[in-house]
Design brief:
CATH class: Alpha Beta
Low-confidence stretches: none
Radius of gyration: 14 Å
Strand content: 15-25%
Order of helices and strands: HEEHEHEHEHEEH
Helix content: 25-40%
Number of strands: 7
Oligomer: single chain
CATH topology: Glutaredoxin
Largest sheet: 7 strands, mixed
Structural class: alpha/beta
Number of domains: 1
Distance between the termini: 38 Å
């Protein structure tokens, strides 16, 4: 559960994603806003971040941001859920805002259900890996080991 102080850092916005900054807030945006951002991007990686995750596919946002910077990709870092880990203290990306999709459109309180519905809506299948888009179109999914030289 978020503290009252952290709740103030969760901001719903209709502003375009490319106008948002990495300023310590979490921006809750609509699915159409995410689709619009993807459509306007030449090459984009989308990473699904779960704070405190220790699985092999989980890395800090700064790793993804650095990879994107070194390959001239745009970077979209999506917060999938608020866990017991304080995402505000461990989010380490320097210039990519932290975005949370507004999952309320899926009308379920179960993370596994709304997350699956989101994945299918975005790329046509239930896939939790890193998504690569080019010219607004889904290209493929990558695993973290694909990003390590």
């Amino acid at each position: 559960m978020l503290s009252k102080e952290d709740q103030l850092k969760v901001i719903s916005t209709n502003n375009p994603i490319d106008s948002l900054t990495a300023d310590g807030n979490v921006y809750v945006v609509s699915i159409p806003q995410i689709k619009d951002y993807i459509a306007k991007s030449d090459t984009l990686l989308v990473y699904h971040w779960v704070p405190g995750c220790t699985a092999s596919q989980c890395v800090l946002p700064s790793f993804i941001e650095h990879y994107c910077d070194s390959h001239d990709y745009k970077c979209l870092l999506l917060l999938i859920s608020f866990t017991s880990t304080n995402c505000f203290s461990i989010y380490d990306a320097k210039h990519s805002p932290l975005i949370m999709p507004d999952f309320s459109i899926y009308e379920t309180k179960y993370k596994s259900k709304y997350y699956s519905l989101f994945n299918v809506e975005m790329i046509g299948r239930d896939d939790y890996d890193i998504w690569l888009f080019a010219n607004g179109k889904y290209v493929k999914s990558l695993k973290v080991e694909n990003l390590v030289p």
